[in-house]
Amino acid sequence: MARAFVLAVAVSLAIACGPSAVVAQPAPQPPTFATSGDQAFDEWRDDFTRRAVARGRDPAVLGRLLSGIRVDDRVIELDQRQPEFVSPVWDYVTNRVTENRIAGGRALKNEIGGTLRDVEQRYGVPSGIILGIWGLESNYGEAALNWDAQTALATLAFEGRRRAQFETYLMALAEMVERGLADQAQLRSSWAGALGQPQFMPDVYLSTAVDWDNDGHRDIWTNRGDVAASIGNYLQDRGWRAGEPVFDEVRLPNGFDYALADGTMRSVSDWQQRGVTRVEGGVWPADQRDLQAQLFLPAGAQGPALLLHHNFAVIRRYNNSDRYALVVALLARAMDGRGGLVQSWPRQIGALNRDQTVELQTLLNGLGYDAGAVDGLFGSGTRRAVRAFQADTQLPADGFPTLALLDQVRARSGVAVEPPRAPRGLDRRGVRELQRLLNRLGYGAGTADGVIGSRTRDAIRAFERAQGMEVRGRATDVVLERARASAG
């Protein structure tokens, strides 16, 4: 009887106190880790896992992902490396819109053409655009993924420059494993933690990756249908407009105001009224005259002129670079059997390296033109400052920086303009570097042995000719600097 009474009381208390009195469980505890040998990293890792568990991540998954991880110094080096040389736009484009990449895309299209057609029908994104992104991101899956994603992401989060961003990616990676979307052995990535053939960050994978063949896995590492559909879904989700062009190459009339290339969107009809015409001739189709477009001069007044449409900006959502979007569109054209740009690149005007861009920004700021941060990167603020300087000095206000422009800014600032120095010959170490770069760029300089033979000279001449340089066939610091810039 007493036992029954106690049980009745317990039941009554449970009812009165609610379900929590019966099923209350201790809060999940974060995993414990062996030391990595780096106290600061261990402190960050332990704090991150506590916060991740508090936000609902599975301690067991976090324990498996982060056990044994150490800071990867190579990842930090790649993240922090600021190249001394910045490729001119013409090098960036021609080094990526290559016959090999075009042929690879066409071969893949022949292999999985039916899948690509179905993906295009489902998402409205042309197969050429999908292949262009695929080729740039991973060379159609042939590029090596040399890192474990959790190591790369944890290293970059710990490093701290973009801690919140990479902690978010690491949280998403843990969620992928918890939900069985990918197992730990699959999580191969770039040094920045980008996953699989389309190079998705983990949060993008969660929201955008597609299981095209309905096999229960969103496999962007090995399944071509999943890769193609995931890229198509990404672009559709970011606003791709089926049937609309990416860009039109155009001709500008004599006396055109280049300052109109300032990012302002105008209708195609408006541009027509300003004398802008299609480079291939003829008028725009009636259904395109109301489309909005901005004028883009990727190499200034002497280079190609493009009207960029809405879909160009959508490609930029994949990689926030005008050059990247242009390459994707040009690869798509090539794979569809269409030609590239009609207007040639003005290689003869030269381009600024990072140090020269820093000098330009410093001098423009000193003259009151507000080029923004002095970082050696030619962004929109510097472009506006250059355009304002050009307008004030009666130059074509195309916003494009050249060596000649830098000399004019120097003169206006009272800085002595140095005469061009004579090229200097390279020592054996420099010749080896030049040979390696020329081989990498496809010029066939032979063995990188530091010896200047006939094959190396022929490669230098071919490179100089392609760059619009004086063809001399000599291994000089000027040729080496240009090769570094071309190799990106």
What does this entry look like structurally?
Helix 8 runs parallel beside helix 13 and helix 9 (127-138) packs across helix 13. Among the domains are: 2-66, no CATH class; 352-413, Muramoyl-pentapeptide Carboxypeptidase, domain 1 (Orthogonal Bundle), CATH 1.10.101; 428-487, Muramoyl-pentapeptide Carboxypeptidase, domain 1, CATH 1.10.101. A hairpin with an 8-residue loop joins strand 6 and strand 7. The longest helix is centred in the N-terminal third of the chain and has 16 residues, at 2-17. The protein is built from 22 helices and seven strands. It has helices spanning 2-17, 20-23, 39-54, 59-66, 73-80, 89-94, 99-111, 113-123, 127-138, 149-159, 163-178, 202-208, 224-237, 268-273, 310-318, 322-335, 354-366, 380-392, 403-413, 428-440, 454-467, 477-487, and strands spanning 147-148, 188-189, 247-251, 266-267, 277-278, 292-296, 305-308. 50% of the residues lie in helices and 5% in strands. Strands 4-6-7-3-5 form a five-stranded antiparallel beta sheet. The protein has 488 residues and is mainly α.
